[in-house]
Amino acid sequence: MSRRQIHLAAHFPGVNNTTVWNDPHSGSQIDFSSFEYFGRTAEKGLFDYVFLAEGLRLREHRGRIHGRDVVGRPNTLSVLAALAAVTDHVGLVGTLNTTFNEPYELARELATLDWLSAGRAGWNAVTSSDAFHGANFRRGGFLDHADRYTRAAEFAELAKKLWDSWAEGDVVADAAAGEYLRAGAPARVRHSGPQFDVDAVFDVPRSPQGRPVIVQAGDSADGRDFGAAHAEVIFSLHTEFDDARAFYDDVKGRLAAGGRDEESLKILPAASFVIGDTAEEAEERSREIARQQVRPEVALTYVEQVWGRDLSGYDPDGPLPEIDPDTGAESDHGWANRHAAVRRRIASLRELSESENLSIREVVIRLTARHTFVGTPAHIAAEIDRYVQGRATDGFTIVGHLTPHGLDEFADRVVPLLQERGSYRQAYEDGATLRDLLGLPAVRPLDASVAVR
């Protein structure tokens, strides 16, 4: 029996405490040379795609821009378009919001990127509902939290109809003849729904891979349903083997209801790594990197966001606050850690802190800076292979801790061992699209001409 093939994505280090910005080897997060170096490294490592996160506003804490938001956040599509010109094979996936964009415009931009890259484009569809991000836009925080996936689902459905409105072969090869379209193309897209009312003729021909690959990261019940209905890759946070296997089984078990099979969706959890020549060296490096990732001020900020209170008088190297959290406080500064589920964990955090005598900083390190794979290159390769062969994942989204060199060691020392196991490609196939690299089935076009009422 042939071995399941491992799929790897490369996450460009972003604005969070994963990235160690004060390391002397850390570079710019906005200079194009950083993106170019990272993209070329991912391509050297034969990765499926490069993955860029995007935030629509700098994070703030107590009225100040937080130090983790170094310099700024350049536009994802602009960066990916530039990367298309300096890479040949690796996929290009960007995070783009369904709440503060419009389907026609975003579908057009992604289709253009797919053409520029010869079929290597992907879209990580994310939602948002808070007024903090919404304040940057004309409508502000207009969307109820419960409606974010309602809008996202309709957004994705409409985007697919627009992409599918050009049939294969609609572009005439001899444009010099003056005939650019075959008769009857493209189809008019008429859509009238709760979120969007569109009557359009899409102006970008069908792309080399049919349509861009859709990636998604939601973990709620609504998020999992959205993923099963629309996503072709899921970027999850489930990295413990049993937990990852349960998530894999749950989401892939939802596919049949939509007429999909297991191979039509790939699950690639985020995975950090620390490599050492020995297990002991790797563990020591992991501890050092974690303390760089969670500096004292970062630890205190994290706990303040969970508690919803000003805790500036507390010592980050002291115990957790004894006061109760303000569970009625709402996040207005763009922090993911303000969800009620995190606040409910405070009791377990206290138990952890007391049973192991952990300080605030040590608790935050345990929560946010536990590296997924720590060990020798051979150990890490074996673990990744175990997850994939055991159907806990289809691969991983690799997250390094340095910009732009965080992928170097993995590409040089782990990838060759995955190849030796027969679980990872030896080379890219000429002309392969992102859909091909991921082993996804060919797109079956929707009937874009049918009016949706």
Give a description of the structure:
The chain is built from 15 helices and 14 strands. It is of the alpha/beta class and 453 residues long. β7 and β8 form a beta hairpin.
User: Going across the major beta sheet, what is the strand order?
Assistant: 11-10-9-6-5-2-1-14-12-13
Mean pLDDT over all positions: 86
Distance between the termini: 48 Å
Class from secondary-structure proportions? alpha/beta
Share in β-strands? 5-15%
Secondary-structure map:
Elements: E1 7-11, H1 32-44, E2 49-52, E3 60-61, E4 64-65, H2 76-84, E5 91-97, H3 103-116, E6 121-126, H4 131-134, H5 148-163, E7 189-192, E8 197-200, E9 213-216, H6 221-230, E10 233-234, H7 241-253, E11 266-267, E12 270-275, H8 279-293, H9 296-307, H10 340-343, H11 346-356, H12 360-368, E13 373-375, H13 377-389, E14 395-399, H14 408-420, H15 434-437
Parallel strand pairs: 1-2, 1-14, 2-5, 5-6, 6-9, 9-10, 10-11, 12-13, 12-14
Antiparallel strand pairs: 3-4, 7-8
Helix pairs in contact: 2-3, 3-5, 5-6, 9-12, 13-14
Primary descriptors:
about 450 residues; alpha/beta; 10-stranded parallel sheet; two-stranded antiparallel ribbon; about 10% strand
Task: Sum this structure up briefly.
This protein has 15 helices and 14 strands. Helices cover 35% and strands 12% of the residues. It is globular.
